Amino acid sequence: MKVYLETSFISACVTTRLDASSVHRKRESLEWWQSERPKHDLMVSDEVLIELGNPAYPSRSDALAFIRQVPVLAVNWEE
Description:
The chain is mainly α.
């Protein structure tokens, strides 16, 4: 099964926030990443890379490294 990873999932995985909600989302997201990732064909889009690569994004390096090996979905706007 193919799974598209969007920015909020990746952000949850690399957050450094310590509030209870962020810690919970990070734990749940990383658990999914460990248990389910091998069962799926993962992909991201150029838009996700642009959002995570923004210099103002606080965890830019960690987020981009986290998805370094995830293929980028080819978008064909003409279809």
